[in-house]
Amino acid sequence: MNNHIFRLKSQVLAIMALSLAASIAQAANTGEVACKTTAECEQQAIKAGVTAKPVSSKATSKNDEKEDQFYWLGKINKASAVMLTEEKIVEPQMGAKLASGVAYSLEQSEKPDGKRPKDVLQIEKIITDEIGPDASLIHTGRSRQDMYATYRMAKLRNQVLDYSDALNTLRTALLAAAAKNVNTIVPAYTNGVQAMPISYAHYLLAYEASFARDAQRIHELYKRMNLSAMGTAVLANSSWPLNRERMAELLGFDGIIENSMDSSQIAPSDVSLEATGIPSSSAIRLGVLLQDIHTQYHQTRPWLLLDEGSTYTSSAMPQKRNPGVIMRAREAASNVVGLAQTVVFRNHNVTTGMTDYKSAWDDLGLFPQAIKMIDSVNTVMKALNVNAKRSLEELEDDWTTSMELAEALQKEHKIPFRVGHSFASSIVTEARNNGFKPKDFPYDKAVELYTKALQKYKLPEGKLPINEAHFREVLSPEFMVKTRVGTGGPQPAEVERMLAESNKRLDGDKAWMQSTRDKLAQADKKSGRGLYQTEGFCRSISR
C-alpha cells in the first residue's frame, strides 16, 4: 500500500514538474542568445523555426549569391537609419549613432571570423554589442514581416532578371541556328503524322517567338514585382510616421505596394505565382522541342543528331550513341514544372499570414533549376547537327505535299477543292498500297484517278489539266515551301524577314535588361557609396 502511494506521489510530482517546465518555457528570442559564428547563428534560427534549413544552393548568379538575406537586412537597416533621421523620428546624433552601428555590423561580416546571420534580431544584437541598447531604435515601426517581404521581393527580382538573361541566351542560340537553316526543308507534324514541309528555320522561329512572349511577360511582371513592402510593420502599419516612399527609393524599388496588408501577406503569394509560372511555361515548350530532337534517335537515319562528342556509348552495345545531354535538359525542364506545381501547392489552402507561401520558390530553388534548364538546352543547341539531305529524303518518301495538288487544281483550273482533295487522297491510297513515292507515281494512273474523282462528284468528264512535269513539280517539297505566300509562312524571303524582326526584338529585350540592371546599380551606388557611408551619412543628417 505504501509503495503504491509512493509511486502515485512520484507520478504526480513528475506531472507537476512537466507542467511547471511548460509554463515557464518561452518563445526563443534570437536576439538574446549569443552566437559566435554565422553557422551557429543559423542553427539557432533554424532550431527556433525562424528560418528553414537550407536544402541546396539557391543562387542564380554571383550577384544573387552576394545579395543574400544578411545583405538585404543590412541594406534595410541603412535605409531605416536615413529615413528615421530625415523624418525626425530620431535626432541627428542618434541617427549617426545608429548608422555607425549598422556600419559595424556590415564591416564585421567581411572579416574571417565575422557573422552574417539571417535573422533580424541576431543582426540587431551585433549592432547592440557595438553601440548599446539604443540599437533597437533601428527597428522603430518595423517587423520581420515587412523586412522579410521586402528582402524576398528583392531576391525574386534578382532571380527573375537572371532567368531573363538566360532566356535571352537561348533565344540567341535559336536565332543563330535558324539563320543557318533558312533553306533546310524538314517535315512538320500534326497529330503525330507528317503534315507539311517547312524550313527548319521556320520551326525554330516559332519556338523563339514563344520565348519572346516570355520576355514580354517578365517585363509586365517587373512592374508589379519591383515594389516595396517596407514601412508596413506586421500588416497594418505603425503609429510612427514612416516614409514608405522614401524607403522604397533608398532600396531601389520603383514604388510601394500600397495596401499594408497586401504588401506582406497577399502580394508574396500572387506575385511569386506569376513569376514561377513563366519558367514553368518555358519548360513545357522546351520539353516539346527536346522531344522533337530526341525522337530522331528512334530513326535508323536521323536528320537531327548531336555531335558524337556530346553523346555517350553503351557499356554493352557498340552501335549506341546515347543523347545524354538531351535527357539531362529534359529532366531539368521536368524539375522546373514539378517545382512550380509545388509552389502552387504551398500557396494552396493556407490561412492569411502563414509562412508556407511566402518563399516557396526560394526554398525549392526553382529559379536556379530553371537557369540550369536553359544552360542544358543551350548545350543541346550547340551540339545539334541538321542533315538537310536526309530530312528532304524523308519528305520525298511520303505524301506530305498532296494538299498542294488539290490547291493547284483549284487555283489554276477552277476545280472545286473537295474534288481535288478526293483526287489527291485516292493517289495517296494507291501509292501506299503499291509502294509508290511522289517521284515515281505513274502519271497515267493519276489521270485515271482524276477521271474517277470527277465521276464521284458528277462533274463533266475531262482530262487531268496538269501535265506530268507540273505534276512532279507540285509534289516537290521545295516547290511547296517556296510557293507559300502570306505573312509568317515558311517561304525563304518571309523567314529571312521574320529572322531580322526576331533579332531586332531580341536586341530590344536585351536593351531593356541592360537598362533595368543599370537603374538598379545606380540606385545601389547612390545608397551604398554616398548617403550610407558612415562619415557622409553623419554629415548629411547633421545639417
UniProtKB/TrEMBL annotation:
Coiled-coil residue windows: 378-412
GO terms for biological process, alphabetical: L-arginine biosynthetic process via ornithine
InterPro entries: Argininosuccinate_lyase, Fumarase/histidase_N, Fumarate_lyase_fam, Fumarate_lyase_N, L-Aspartase-like
Catalytic activity: 2-(N(omega)-L-arginino)succinate = fumarate + L-arginine
Segment forming the signal sequence: 1-27
EC main group: lyase
Span of domain Fumarate lyase N-terminal: 136-338
Keyword terms of this UniProt record: Amino-acid biosynthesis, Arginine biosynthesis, Coiled coil, Lyase, Signal
Record's GO cellular component terms: cytosol
Pathways involved: Amino-acid biosynthesis; L-arginine biosynthesis; L-arginine from L-ornithine and carbamoyl phosphate: step 3/3
Record keyword Amino-acid biosynthesis present: yes
Pfam assignment, any one: Lyase_1
The name this protein goes by in its record: argininosuccinate lyase
The organism of origin for this protein: Advenella mimigardefordensis (strain DSM 17166 / LMG 22922 / DPN7)
Lineage, top ranks: Bacteria, Pseudomonadati, Pseudomonadota, Betaproteobacteria, Burkholderiales
